[in-house]
Amino acid sequence: HGWWLMEDSKMSKSLGNVIDPLKLIDEYGVDSVRYYLMRDMVLGMDASFTIESFIKRYNADLANDYGNLVNRVTMLIVKHFDGKIPESGDYDESDLKLIGEAKNTPQTVSGLMKDLKIHKALENIMSLLRNINRYLEVKAPWQSIKENDSQGGSAATTLALSADVLRIGSQLLNPVMPEKVQTILSILGANSIDPSDTSVGKLKSGTVLGEGKSPFPRIITE
After folding, report:
1. For the CA atoms of the chain, what is the radius of gyration?
2. In sequence order, what are the beta bridge partners of 9?
3. Contacts of 162 (CB under 8 A, 6+ apart)
4. Which one of 159, 175, 182, 186 is CB 3.0 to 4.6 Å from 210, fit for a cystine?
């Protein structure tokens, strides 16, 4: 492995630029720190650490892309479908595109992990989560539900598929963030699903969501 640098210098007690990882963990949690280390370091190469880069990565990936997605999907299901995964109807082109991505990502991630390209594996997982957000923007279930809030309708299909693909992305993140991911899987009602089974469709209609919200609150800096 390479060196962790403080900006461009090797960490050194004499320079006073050493970061205590235990203090960082106490403040931000072990899963968040582990994600940052695995995402921003390429094995075999040096990597630069700053608290600013940590906060930027945390807020962008975990608070915004992941955490907000968890809250967005579950809150809509709670509000419009009594907190239960709705029943999907027929899939359109946008649905099938997301399903294809959800089917391909686990295999891609597995290959990258075996090649020790952990940073690229995590980026592929985050790309899948960002694609759920884009899919939601295109489908706009908060609008379509005003016209049809029935099971099998457009909004029901969109939210059911979003929750299921979110479950897949969470399972893929489990090796890096086991505690936080288990919290999110519990919120999705997916605790009983085999964590190694990333097949589409495992989060069945009628599954009751758990309580809680994203465990990744945004870090506010002065």
Report:
1. 19
2. 6
3. 73, 132, 135, 136
4. 186
In 67-206, where does DSSP find H-type helix?
68-80, 93-114, 118-139, 141-147, 154-173, 178-187
**Shortest CA distance to 9 belongs to which of 21, 19, 1, 20?**
19
Query: Residue 6 carries which DSSP code?
Result: E
Helix axes of 154-173 and 68-80: crossing angle, nearest 10 degrees: 140
Count CB-CB contacts under 10 A for residue 122.
Answer: 22
- Distance CA(54)–CA(131), nearest Å, equals 23
Residue 211 corresponds to which tokens in the numbers above? 């309580």
pLDDT digits (tens, 9 = 90+) for 44-62: 888 888 889 999 999 999 9
pTM of the model: 0.93
Q: Cα 155 vs. chain centroid, distance in angstroms? A: 22
